[in-house]
Design brief:
The chain has 750 residues and is an alpha/beta fold. It is 42% helix and 13% strand. A six-stranded mixed beta sheet has the order 13-15-19-17-18-20, with helices on both faces. Strand 17 and strand 18 form a beta hairpin. The chain is extended. It holds the Pfam family Sirohm_synth_M.
Length: 750
């Protein structure tokens, strides 16, 4: 939507229209509108003055003399009011401010004419008034109809000009898309071109090629990191790489030094003019030159060196690229991505070139193209190459330009042509997954006609390959699910959930989706884990979209890594969807920061139980550190003994003071969330005094109390620790807080 009439201007148009119509009626029904007339009551404000005595154009003299100016002005006022009403009716339509501008200009100019007429007639209609009444009743009221419309018109004009300028700039940027007004000769020429049987060449485009420098000598001139990158690119193309620079080898990047010591490149310290470079290139048989930095000696200016190398390469007709100097380059290096194959790099490469206009942008475009293609597209290309190799011995490359679906005879030597057409059909219609999965036996069967390989749209009975997603459900509140997690829950066909995933999350799963919840209990954790992995694998093999739903984040004590490796071993690469970890969200939901300036500058997270329930070594005490312990509430006595007991293998570092604050966070972000606030000395008794609400976590450190009340952020500055704890707990052994903050009702819970 373009520029629209400002609201204050619309208000003026509406108000002025009512007043103007009222004035029009006064003029057109004279003398019945005059004092004593039958309609005088309608125009009581005029007649109270009375206005017939102020301005004789509105009074008896003009009426009795038959002066037509008054009624002529009234008719123009009607036209003005129509403009106002049309503008108001159009609202935000682009034409509304234009019509409003016309009306405002008309109002101001009409009133100007009225005043000028009075000036040039020597104040013949108003000069008889006392000065006060002249200025207040006649001048001020009439000037209002000049000043306000003029300001409003200026505002509209400025707004319209700015809007037109923006559109003009946009059109300038799209000139190549615009249909220009052409001369008759140009139109005729264009029509003749359209009748030509073949397209006309449009110059200015460099020629993209793939160059194969296998076993050919190439030269990299430079001593910077870009030179090392160019060397690697050329080595991957199997070229014989020479590196030249005016510096000692020891001054070059470590990568070039390493490759030279391993005989991967030939290094020459070299400097000279055009003749010396030409002789060097001729002696070495150089076929391509890449210059990355042209200041190869302390005495040679960069431009002169580049010119010398460029001239030498041109004299020998050798392609050359000089970094950041397109005027000295006959080719450019595109941004290249090489896709992985089944066994190492594949033959598929994607190259993006901006022809020197945007190298950084080329890299971004290349990354986005690579990210959108399937990971196995390289293996698909390699398999098509093998198919071509098997079908090609008796076929010509010219067949690659034959129409794809042209019928082919099955007789005699054309059997080989049929094989090649099969390759073309498969390249066009098969999915990348199917092409990447072709075995050597399947390739031979297809080409020999022993097992006709059907096209995908004829494959009604082929089972679809499923997928597995490890999805973090966050701490518990539905609004803390990521968008990706919510999408996975809505589109999965089988969901395998951990037991501790809150009911609020489970309630979001569509009723039609198959759901299995882990049968996990103390002593059965490993069996439950194995069962869930086997169910996920069976579902994926049956073509299901399987979601392994885990509380928090799959990789934060969620055993997600074990599942990734298990599924990979059985042929499935699981997609891992992050979740908000309770280690961070839990304290936050209780108003506890895990780091806080002046209180805690280090955050450490660990588990309270190792594999098979074995004890773990906890970190030692550090005043500025916050320690989060997951899966430790059920083992609180063991955890406290490790933290506060004598030095031993259960703790790596100093013992924790018994007055140190501790928070037990339970069911964080659920409606019944709770935090138990206490000290290491009293927390065990506090937990025994209340019913446990798993899952829970332990947070140890001064951060547990730093935002209570007015806050205490001076602990690291030497505050009295015991006095601070006494104030925090108000003399109690522990305190609890329950429930979500009131404002969390604003967030969706389903």
């Amino acid at each position: 939507m373009g520029y629209t009439t400002p609201r204050w201007v619309r208000l003026w148009l509406a108000l002025s229209s009512v007043i103007v119509l009222w004035d029009v009626g006064y003029c057109l029904v004279r003398p019945r509108s005059f004092p004593g007339g039958s309609l005088a009551w309608i125009w009581a404000p005029y007649n109270m003055v009375p206005y017939v005595d102020v301005d004789w154009l509105y009074g008896w003299p003009a009426f009795e003399n038959g002066d037509g100016f008054t009624n002529a002005q009234a008719v123009m006022n009607i036209v003005e009011t129509i403009f106002n009403f049309v503008s108001l009716w159009l609202g935000d339509h682009p034409a509304a401010p234009v019509i409003a501008l016309m009306s405002l200009v008309m109002t101001a100019s009409k009133t100007d004419l009225y005043l000028l007429q009075e000036v040039f007639c020597g104040w013949c209609n108003t000069g008889h008034n006392p000065r006060l009444r002249f200025w207040t009743v006649w001048v001020m009221t009439n000037c209002t109809w000049i000043v306000v419309p003029t300001i409003a018109a200026a505002a509209l004009a400025w707004g319209l000009i700015r809007d037109l300028s923006r559109h003009s700039a946009r059109l300038d940027g799209l000139k190549h898309h615009a249909v220009a007004v052409q001369s008759p000769q140009a139109i005729v020429a264009k029509a003749e071109k359209a009748r030509d049987p073949f397209p006309h060449a449009v110059g200015g485009a460099p020629l993209p090629l793939t160059f194969h420098p296998r076993d050919r000598p190439v030269l990299v001139v430079g001593s910077n990191r870009l030179a090392a990158s160019r060397v690697l690119t050329l080595l991957e193309a199997d070229a014989v790489v020479h590196v030249a620079s005016g510096r000692e080898l020891s001054e070059l990047p470590e990568e070039i030094q390493w490759r030279a010591s391993n005989k991967e490149v030939h290094y020459t310290r070299f400097s000279g003019g055009r003749d010396e470079w030409e002789q060097f290139m001729r002696e070495q048989g150089i076929t391509l030159v890449a210059v990355t930095d042209t200041l190869i000696s302390s005495g040679a200016p960069s431009l002169e060196t580049a010119q010398a190398i460029h001239a030498a390469a041109n004299a020998l007709r050798i392609p050359i690229n000089v970094s950041d100097r397109p005027d000295f380059s006959t080719f450019t290096f595109p941004s290249v991505h090489r896709f992985a194959g089944a066994d190492g790099p594949s033959n598929l490469q994607v190259a993006v070139s901006t022809n020197g206009k945007g190298c950084r942008l080329a890299g971004r475009i290349r990354r986005e193209i690579a990210a959108k293609l399937p990971a196995n597209v390289g293996a698909a290309v390699d398999n098509i190459g093998q198919l071509r190799a098997r079908a090609k011995p008796t076929i010509s490359d010219d067949d690659s330009i034959t129409p794809l679906n042209k019928p082919v005879s099955q007789k005699g030597g054309e059997d080989h042509l049929r094989r090649m057409r099969w390759v073309h059909q498969m390249s066009e219609y098969y999915s990348y997954d199917q092409l990447a999965a072709l075995s050597a036996g399947e390739m031979d069967s297809v080409l020999e006609g022993e097992a006709p390989y059907p096209l995908p749209h004829h494959e009604g009975g082929i089972a679809k390959r499923g997928r597995i997603l490890l999805v973090g459900s966050g701490p518990g509140h539905p609004s803390l699910l990521t968008v990706a997690a919510r999408h996975a829950l809505n589109n999965a066909t089988l969901i395998l959930s951990d037991k501790l995933v809150p009911a609020e999350i489970i309630a979001l799963i569509p009723k039609t989706t198959k759901l299995h919840i882990a049968r996990k209990f103390p002593g059965n954790a490993d069996n439950s884990q194995n069962e869930m992995m086997e169910l996920a694998l069976a579902g994926a093999r049956a073509g299901e979209t399987v979601v392994r739903l885990k509380q928090g984040d799959p990789f934060v004590y969620g055993r997600g890594g074990e599942e990734v490796l298990y599924f990979r071993e059985h042929g499935f690469e699981a997609t891992v969807v992050p979740g908000v970890s309770s280690a961070l969200a839990g304290p936050l939901m209780m108003g506890i920061p895990v780091t806080q300036r002046g209180v805690a500058d280090t955050f450490v997270m660990c588990t309270g139980a190792g594999r098979g329930g074995a004890a773990v070594q906890l970190p030692g005490y550090q005043k500025s550190k916050t320690l989060a312990i997951l899966m430790g509430v059920a083992r609180i006595d063991t955890v406290l003994a490790a933290l506060t007991g004598p030095d031993g293998p259960q703790r790596d570092g100093a013992a924790y003071p018994r007055h140190l604050p501790i928070a037990i966070v339970e069911r964080a972000s659920s409606p019944d969330q709770r935090v138990i606030l206490s000290t290491l000395e009293n927390v065990a008794g506090a937990i025994q005094s209340v019913d446990q609400r798993p899952p829970g976590m332990i947070l140890v450190g001064w951060a547990a109390m730093c935002l209570e009340g007015k806050g205490r952020v001076d602990i690291l500055d030497g505050a009295d620790e015991k006095e601070a704890v006494e104030t925090w707990l108000a003399g109690e052994r522990f305190r609890t807080r329950e429930g979500l903050p009131a404002d969390w009702s604003w967030f969706p819970s389903a």
